[in-house]
Design goal:
Elements: E1 9-14, H1 16-19, E2 20-21, E3 24-25, H2 27-42, E4 46-51, H3 54-62, H4 70-92, E5 97-102, H5 110-125, E6 129-134, H6 147-158, E7 163-168, E8 173-174, E9 186-187, E10 189-190, H7 194-197, H8 210-223, E11 228-232, H9 238-243, E12 250-252, H10 260-266, E13 273-277, H11 279-288, E14 297-302, E15 309-313, E16 319-324, H12 329-335, H13 343-347, E17 361-363
Length: 370
């Protein structure tokens, strides 16, 4: 049995290419997905649904082709979102559903992250099915077809799910493009996502983020200990069958487990600043699990306050990790390269000896492929 198949809490992401049908949303497919989710709930599981499809629904409603400019994409998302939710409401009736609109930027704020987590946990406790979509109407750099793949991975970390399921228009990850190579073979399991990321191509143009987006989602989830299962979303009963152990799709193993604040740190898109470390500090962090002291800091970049997240880099620009700074940027600038015992003399006060404490630090893998 694959680890995670018996998880009590699941995040299920449904792509636009799965939901789209002639003239708009495919009600039959949506009803079948809702049936499977409700069956899981009857088994005592909790399910959070991440649903694409708002832009596709807006395109059908207005009779427009896929847009190229951002304002039109956002207008279509605004038009299609209520249509998408109305159809989900009908598919799940009489079970109540809730709409939750998020962007990756929302999850970058620790306060909003915790608020979202509390809301989702309360919805699950009340027996409501949370249906999450990216807030395309207000998103800017994040909006592009397929972002919900990676958003679903961050949601999985947010709710501390035991498994992420990506329902796609492809059967599995293949060792080659099956559209071009009829001899391409599906890959049933992937131990490390990095090994296959470089070979990922683009998928269905209608709202799919492509296979690369799904691999990135599996990597995000795997880094916080959540395995991912990629499944053919239009196959009836596929979720129930896969969770019973039928070898469907592609299973991505998890690599490690971070919870709480560390899981949030690992998923941050844009820390507030950067600290460049000398080789000794890098070794201390990676090999001894040490805290970051001011003596190991070579340079300070960006503007950040005390308690805000910073990215830690080698002198060559390789990312070492992300942590919470105990001092603001201008303070670190004054104490960098100095011994901890000098902090009070340099600043007139001392919060802690460490610039970043190891309890508020997550390390990235060395020389990972992106």
């Amino acid at each position: 049995m694959r680890p995670g198949l018996e998880a009590k809490r699941l995040v299920v992401k449904v792509g636009s290419a799965v939901l789209a049908g002639p003239g708009g949303l495919d009600r039959g497919v949506m009803a079948e997905i809702a049936r499977q989710v409700l069956t899981l709930r009857q088994e005592g599981r909790e399910v959070v649904l991440v649903s694409s499809g708002a832009v596709a629904a807006g395109m059908a409603a207005l009779g427009l082709p896929r847009p190229q400019d951002m304002p039109t994409k956002q207008a279509l998302a605004a038009t299609g979102q209520p249509l998408l939710m109305a159809q989900w409401r009908e598919a799940f009736a009489p079970t109540p559903v809730a709409q939750v609109l998020l962007t990756a930027e929302d999850l970058a704020s620790r306060e909003r992250y915790l608020n979202a987590k509390a809301t989702l946990q309360t919805l699950l406790r009340l027996g409501v099915v949370p249906i999450i979509n990216e807030n395309d109407t207000v998103a800017f750099q994040e909006i592009r077809f397929g972002d919900n793949d990676q958003l679903s991975a961050r949601v999985a970390a947010l709710v501390e799910a035991g498994l992420l399921l990506l329902l796609s228009d492809v059967d599995a990850l293949y060792d080659d493009d099956p559209k071009k190579n009829p001899k391409a073979r599906p890959i049933p399991e992937v131990e490390r996502v990095e090994a296959v990321l470089a070979h990922a191509g683009e998928g269905n143009p209608l709202g799919s983020g492509g296979m690369r987006s799904k691999l990135l989602a599996a990597r995000i989830a795997g880094r916080v200990g959540i395995p991912t299962l990629l499944l053919p979303g239009r196959r009836p009963g596929v979720v129930l069958q896969a969770l019973k152990g039928l070898p469907l799709g592609t299973y991505f193993h998890a690599q490690r487990r971070y919870r709480g604040q560390r899981a949030w740190l690992y998923g941050l898109l844009r820390p507030k600043g950067e600290l460049v470390l000398d080789p000794g500090a890098v070794r201390a962090l990676r090999e001894r699990g040490a805290s970051l002291l001011p003596a190991g800091i070579k340079a300070v970049r960006g503007r950040f306050g005390r308690g805000e997240a910073v990215r830690l880099l080698t002198e060559e620009g390789e990312e070492v990790g992300v942590g919470l700074a105990n001092y603001a940027a201008e303070e670190v600038e004054r104490i960098k390269g100095r011994r901890s015992g000098e902090i009070e003399a340099l600043l007139g006060y001392r919060y802690t000896e460490e610039v970043v404490h190891r309890d508020h630090l997550v390390l990235k893998e060395a020389k990972e492929e992106v």
